[in-house]
Amino acid sequence: MAILGIDVGGSGIKGALVENGQLVTERLRIPTPEPSTPEAIADTLNEIVKSFNYKGPIGCGFPALILDGVVKTAANIHKTWIDVPAEKLFSQKTGQPVYLINDADAAGLAEIYYGAGKNKKGTIFMITIGTGIGTAIFINGQLVPNTELGHLKMYGKSAEKYCSDAVRTKKNLSWKQWAMRFNEYLAYIEFLFSPQLIILGGGASKKFDQFAPYLNTRAEIVPAELKNHAGIIGASVWAGSKASINTPSSTPQGNLL
Length: 257
Hints:
With 257 residues, this protein is an alpha/beta fold. The chain is built from 8 helices and 15 strands.
């Protein structure tokens, strides 16, 4: 069964039908509305659902900490999102069951199921590098949700304010200069968690070959394989799992939590 996955980003909201880790439709992208208020985002989600004439469970990756379908942080989104029951709002707007997940967690799920982390054991980190830094942790394939470790403190501020791709662009850093900063962040992560594998996703991962020679980690470090589709695919995986859990006659698709 193809499931609609939607990835909410700062500049665009993207969606596609996904089956077995593959997009089975063209990806639809709609610019993120300004201001990106709850009602405006909900309307855009509904527009995507209608475009696919889709009925069924919907997975939605969202750039915030999500607890029981409620948005709890707003570091890179409109401040009015805090404490909004977004899962309920989106479900009411679209008329379909919507399952919300942190966007980095969604990208991580895609890589664990179908990408660079497939069939890998131990502690695996997914780090998305873009406007901010997103993280997802998997222990023997099980997700530890909402880690948000891009907000670890470095030099008195959030790590993403020190070594995100947006910082690289703003400060006009060379890939080597930026990699030196990012390597400090990776050392911090390794000190705290000692992962066996680190997967790098997000916009900067497209240039992995440009900065990889300057990274020094104990863990194996690789670029994400699913690139721009990871968020959509992971959201679809999440919706499939949650919909199965909520349907007594169904068999859950793996143990994600």
